[in-house]
Amino acid sequence: MTEQAHQSKDKLVADLKVVIADAEDLLAETASHTGERISELRERMQDNLRNARHKLGELEDAVLVKTREAVKATDHYVHENPWKAVGIAAGAGLIIGLLISRR
Q1: pLDDT confidence of 69, banded at 50, 70, 90?
Q2: What angle do CA 66, 96, 98 make, to 5 degrees?
Q3: pLDDT tens digit sequence for 16-66
Q4: Which of 5, 38, 47, 51 has its CA 20 to 30 A from that of 78?
Q5: What dihedral angle (degrees, nearest 10) is formed by the CA atoms of 55, 61, 65, 71?
Q6: Residues 9, 63 contacting (CB under 8 angstroms)
Q7: Residues 6+ apart with CB under 8 A from 31
Q8: How far apart are CA 23 and CA 86, in angstroms?
Q9: Cα Rg, the chain, nearest whole Å
Q10: How far apart are CA 11 and CA 59, in angstroms?
């Protein structure tokens, strides 16, 4: 998994948490309002929030599993090819150093 994809998933998880918190605040604020239509909307919103929380938990678990798999794969590769890993790291360090020194 690329770093950009990982960051996008992390941002999505954070955004979903904010939406869920805002929706829960909205439900709390409208608790005093009465009426059949509002009650139906509140019930539907609570169901949707439960589903969103459940899916968010699944997404977080999936990201955690993928991250662990990536770490294991990287660890395995480095142990199988130590000199390649050192060469790649040195090359990346050199390129980053050159880019930083150009400023």
Answers
A1: very high
A2: 165
A3: 787 777 777 777 777 777 777 777 777 777 787 788 788 888 888 888 898
A4: 5
A5: 120
A6: yes
A7: 42
A8: 49
A9: 23
A10: 12
